[in-house]
Model the fold of this input.
Amino acid sequence: MKISLRYLFCIVLFSTLFPTVGVNAQNNFDTVPDSVITPLNTSAAPIDSNNIVFSWPSTVGEIYAPEGFVRHEADSNSFAAYLRSLPLRPQGCRVLDYLGHKGWASDYAHAVIDMDIGSVDLQQCADAVIRLRAEWLYGLKRYDDIVFHFTNRFPCPYSRWADGDRVYVSGGSKAGWSHRAKRNYSYECFRDYLEMVFTYAGTMSLDYDARKVSYADMQIGDFFLTPGRPGHAILVGDMVENPSTGEKLFLVLESNTPAADIHVLGVDSDDTTTPWYSLSQLLRYGFIDFPTYSFCEDNLRRFK
Done:
């Protein structure tokens, strides 16, 4: 076979300009990081920037669930659906106390709920649980269901407050009603009612409004509670399940003393990148150590 001079000249020129082609090509390819090597997939659908898995969620219900875990659908008017709809502040936001200073629990937070807490030191741990339940019921106009007890066991229904009655406290432990205002079911009046409840309620009174449930029966909206002075309350804000194994995970919402933003608690003080706790481990050991508080086996509650 004859090879023309022009052909040989082209081979020499190509080898000179592209010396890595051939024997050295594989070595150069090995130096490329795996993260930038993407197999060709001509059937892949266009990327939707609104559905990127690791984008920062805008609500509790959009917090990324671990691979293999799914959320069970909740009724649109349920407490679970309300908690999942709670808006989150942008990534990196700190937990702030009622004065606007960085809260001590900020280092343990995975995300912060975008909800004001007022400018006084009232909405603490138990009060945050009360606030979320009350907001849910108020949004549904279930006014007669908004009832919370004071620590002295005095019941304080919102409907009576909205109808114009006001609470008076005498002797430090006795409470009663007197009619002093016009009927008002506005949101502003509702918040005034909550401030009254926060003043005289706490972890001990929250126990009056709830019943014990087992860890195995945990649902979204249940809360861990240690009644006392001091005590603490942490709310179950969402749950996911692995359909193949039946394993369940849950995340929790918390506020602290002094009053601070409600936040999604991270699993570990050294790693707040995940908020998911294992229910099976809780069942196995009978207690749980959150970064901010520990609870024993009989500490799970559900509103009556």
Observations:
- Residues 5-36 form one domain.
- The first helix runs from residue 5 to 17.
- Residues 1-53 have pLDDT under 50 and may be disordered.
